[in-house]
Design goal:
The chain is 21% helix and 26% strand. By secondary structure, it is of the alpha+beta class. The chain is globular.
């Protein structure tokens, strides 16, 4: 069952912590390791699939699961 936090869906684990998040950059569920890739200092290391939307940086920064 998916839940919603500030417009972003997530699937919790048994303790209620987000196990998977529906990333607003790709509109599909990702795991926490994928999210961490987007938060690296070097923009060149972020996978291209996360940079398709023109305002991808702002979307990522506004996500309630940033640093998840």
């Amino acid at each position: 069952m998916a839940y919603n936090l500030h417009g972003v869906e997530y699937i919790p684990n048994e303790t209620g912590t987000a196990q998977k998040v529906k990333c607003p950059l790709v509109d599909s569920f990702i795991e926490n390791i994928d999210c961490l890739e987007n938060q690296s200092i070097s923009e060149s290391s972020i996978p291209a699939r996360f940079k398709v939307k023109p305002d991808w940086k702002e979307i990522c920064e506004a996500c309630p699961f940033r640093d998840y």
